[in-house]
Specification:
Helix content: 10-25%
Strand order of the largest sheet: 4-1-5-6-7-8
């Protein structure tokens, strides 16, 4: 079986997936430095990995400038397989922003996140969601997707269901 090796460009924006628990605030707070590169490198993937840190923010704190910087990082990437790590609160909004503004059409862009930080908590959904996003990159056509909790969503259909702490399709699929 012929193996296709490619570079996965991880574009990092913070979110719970890349956070730690701050007892003084009684909540998860984005790390000052991302743990995603060391986590991915520990996996010994068959694909190459490149990392770009756009920001380290809770997605509720993202500004228009942050979205524009994500868009710029994607547009200027020499790679066509991209995983964007994000916070769950506004990930759907970012996916729609990228779909509306991305000029390139040769890239497969998968946004993913977690409800529980990768480091310091067991179990965390972060490692699974990253692995799932990586695995879907090979099969998905160019476009923008959200891959989380074992399902892939399009930007047009996805919504976060706060009461269930997970994502769903507005089309009830």
């Amino acid at each position: 079986m012929g193996e296709k090796t490619f570079t996965i460009h991880f574009i990092i924006t913070g979110g719970t997936i890349d956070s730690h628990y701050d007892g003084s605030k009684d909540t998860a707070v984005p790390n000052k430095e991302s743990v995603i590169p060391s986590f991915i490198e520990s996996l010994k993937l068959y694909h190459n990995a490149e990392f770009t840190i756009v920001c380290m923010k809770d997605s509720r704190d993202l500004k228009r400038e942050d979205l524009e910087n994500m868009l710029k990082a994607i547009e200027e990437s020499p790679h066509n397989k991209i995983i964007l790590t994000h916070g769950t609160y506004t990930m759907s909004d970012t996916a729609r922003f990228l779909k509306a503004n991305l000029k390139r059409d040769d890239q497969t862009i998968v946004l993913t996140a977690s409800a529980i930080p990768i480091n310091g908590f067991a179990p965390s959904d972060g490692p699974f969601n990253l692995g799932y996003a990586i695995s879907k990159l090979e099969d998905l056509e160019p476009g923008i997707y959200i891959a989380i909790n074992g399902k892939v969503f399009s930007p047009d259909e996805v919504m976060k269901v706060m009461s269930e702490a997970r994502f769903a399709s507005i089309f009830n699929k």
